[in-house]
């Protein structure tokens, strides 16, 4: 389908596998070039949650950050603690670069009708285009993990499309076992990061749209779904059980309108700020967010890969109708191509009303170039025309991409997280309080471990709410016999002044001592972090 870029090369397969080694190392180097990660989520829970889990603080601290599954962040915390920041970031970048290897294998599986060496070089081009998108490059070397769980998504697709005849028309036991294994792999990723559920739905229901008898399709989707449940049970079953025991909601604080935990508000608690509000906005969403990235997140970037796949899909019915009587040589495996197309389209369709946050579809950005090739490969037009069209689109989306920046430090520090906190007089009898929206939980691992932490107010709790969480907070405060210190940022000062009296407390802001961290450098006075002594002013007012 694509002309060979290195016609004199006698061993393209060896060169391709060498690239599978070199490119991940190149992404490790890219992580060093881009700079040290300091993103909001790292400061909010990626650093604190594994610390809390590993040190047995699940029953000690209350509401310090969102209680996500800490398992995926355990290697992050251990690696970031034990290794220099540059070494760990390089390794993290290499892991992110492994997406290239899996995309290459997936592309080869889809391009089975293409003769060698064109098949090899086409797969290389597609995979490379997939990993250098504006969204993905911005995440290289960061702790978001969207380009880590992508390995489970792409890996699951490989298991399916490497043997499409076996899956869709072969022996039942063999095909079902394969899709069950694929579902289990994907389920592991979903359990580690729940927003991956959009791909679980897409990849599962894609079986209904590809080939085979009605019952064959139903059973393929069924066994894939069983695999997803098994994978989720393995990677997050323990955490969902913990959340159920503590909050009566296995995904607390989300969808509490369904689970109705008495500790939280009876609402979904989902961030729907980026979800399109109308049908017209939804169907034009790829066009709008491709030219304005702030419609799908806080970062400024540009990438047209998903838009290109969307437009190619929209054009397909017209092309099929205009060329309906023409037969052409296949350049993609029809079953493999149809599955990839259906899985990506359905995943996107689920993501739009559920999240609308671009980071969650970074795997789809990676898969978009292959989707473009798979769709064009099914068009009933000349092979050369298809090759030129696909190549031109991949070239355009590559040269027009602009990487995003989800907050990086201007200079590297020795460790991933460095915190210097003032000594407190009696840590064994001190409780740390938190208010406001600034992500400060990353400071907690550097404080004396005997001090419990209680968040009085934040994204999911507020003193005015009549919830079990607020009653539990008041019980904790009443039972504490020692001193209190407030951990807060300067821009949350007014929030602290308003919140503390609602618990019968007052902070002495004239006696605050500064907490210095590498993630919020000293010149940034608006983000200045302090520990301030807090005293009781009387009994905490009863909630009406």
Notes on the structure:
The chain is α/β, with parallel strands linked by helices. Among the domains are: 256 residues, no CATH class; 118 residues, no CATH class. Helices cover 52% and strands 6% of the residues. Strands 1, 2, 3, 4, 5, 6 and 7 form a seven-stranded mixed sheet that branches. The protein starts with 11 loop residues before the first helix and ends in an 8-residue tail after the last strand.
Layout of strands and helices, then pairs:
Layout: H1 12-34, H2 40-46, H3 48-54, H4 74-82, H5 85-110, H6 118-131, H7 134-139, H8 146-161, H9 164-169, H10 172-192, H11 197-205, H12 214-247, H13 256-259, H14 279-283, H15 285-291, H16 305-322, H17 334-354, H18 362-377, H19 383-399, E1 419-420, E2 430-434, E3 453-455, H20 468-479, E4 483-489, H21 493-499, E5 505-507, E6 513-517, E7 529-536
Parallel strand pairs: 2-3, 2-4
Antiparallel strand pairs: 1-6, 4-7, 5-7, 6-7
